[in-house]
């Protein structure tokens, strides 16, 4: 019993679902991590090949099995006309407006891209882009209403 006394015990219940705000943040954080890993791999001169598991059914036998396939990840960065690297943050297929009228971050070079993506991840964790994510989500939801 002395082991339990050394722990901080509380009365808490696990929530059944994440709040929509946290769900959207986590979704964007996962995508930012993919972009950061891709930028690190590019900087180190190696290939970045994430995989996904897909269920495939054999048409002859009807057997269903899991197959590991390469996942397609598009880069959010590009080289601008002035030769500098720029990166835009995407939520789904939409580009987020980071501040009013600004949709991209200018990065000096590809080497600084990892640091910028890390900073953007911290901003998302802190909730600094919640309004922008909600605006994009609301626009998409309005498009589906009939």
Give start-end ranges of low-pLDDT stretches: none
Largest sheet, in brief, is: 3 strands, antiparallel
Structural class: alpha+beta
Question: How much helix is in the residues?
Answer: 25-40%
Beginning-to-end CA distance, first to last residue: 61 Å
In total, the number of strands is 7
SSE topology string: HHEEEEEEEHH
Query: Which radius of gyration do the C-alpha atoms yield?
Result: 21 Å
Overall pLDDT confidence: 88
Strand content: 15-25%
Shape: extended
Number of helices: 4
Strand order of the largest sheet: 3-4-7
Write a structural description.
The protein is an alpha+beta fold and 146 residues long. It has a domain at 19-47 and 74-144. It is built from four helices and seven strands. The strands form three sheets. A three-stranded antiparallel β-sheet has the order 3-4-7, with no helix packed on it. A two-stranded antiparallel sheet has the order 1-2. Strands 5-6 form a two-stranded antiparallel ribbon. The chain is extended and about 65 Å long.
Question: Would you spell out the secondary-structure blueprint of this structure?
Answer:
Layout (H helix, E strand, L loop, with lengths): L1 H4 L14 H25 L6 E7 L6 E7 L6 E3 L5 E4 L1 E2 L2 E2 L8 E4 L5 H13 L4 H15 L2
Antiparallel strand pairs: 1-2, 3-4, 4-7, 5-6
